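User: Can you fold this complex?
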Amino acid sequence: MPVDPDALDGLLAGRGGFEAAYEKLVAAAKAWLQTYGGDSGGRALLRQLEAADVVDTAFDRLFTEGFSPGEDVYLLLRRHIRNHIRTIAKSVKERQTVRVDGDEESTRIYLQQTDPLEQSAPERALIIDDLEYCMKVLFRMTSEVKDDPQVLALVSAIIEGFRDPDEICVVAELTKPQYDATFKRMKRRFAQILAASEEDKK
Amino acid sequence: MNPKDKTTEKMEAFKYLHSASVPDETTLDAMSKEEVEQFLTDTGCDMKTLRARIADRKKKFAGRYALMLARQRRLADKAEPALEPVVPDTKEGIIAFFEQHFGANLPLAARNFKSADYSELRRLYLDLVGGKGASPDAE
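Assistant: Here's the predicted assembly.
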């Protein structure tokens, strides 16, 4: 059976070929793992996953289930990745049984289940499961960016509650071009600190 | 208006920073290859290791893709029906076919074909030529 090594470049031509598409899918998986990860139940399992492994699982599913001619393979893969991560995040705690003994004639069994997704996934992960984690990341952000006073001033303004760029420029003493450049640096530093904090949790 | 407590303020700041730094699907779609690689590097990805993995997966998945296509072809071949003969849609057409193809050598069963109606002629045609609609005892 002939195997065309470049067949996958054709399949993902709309996304720049196989390599570019794979990198983008790994980035998507990383973003979702960071968003849905938490401390309890299935969310804790997400912290153990590698983004590239999740992408490989999506490809396995793609070639097992097949797809129709003309279907956007990249979007299908992305959907497989997202569904896989959400399924793991939604997995409930194990049932607990509690026997009630006493003088009564019957024994009752209590089943306990939690549904960690009553709120939207990011809200739940950030507010309930990860309060301590969020505070820790924020503390790292303010202490590790002291080498970049503009980023520190920007983060401090955000912590104080400012969101409007014009107001932040006044509070942080930045010009608009400085604000734009500083905001980009801030995003990168935050992503680095977030990733480093995720590694610490593994 | 009650002022927010410090914890709430900090949580809101965290959420804001998180949504700004972690790209959503729309943002990712718009990112260039270089921007994607920058994000991957910022989040702890070793690009050299990733590229080696991609090269390996390209070969592995090319094989899986070929297997998938071969399996789909086999299923399609099984499902494709045998071609049916085109039956003339008039009595005269069928009679002309018989006279042209059989002449004086018309099979015994069809000797009185000119007096048959169209549906009988159609069944006779299929019996002689083959296909769906032929009589159950047709050869």
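The two ends of chain B are 94 Å apart (CA to CA). Chain B touches chain A through 48 residues (CB under 8 Å).
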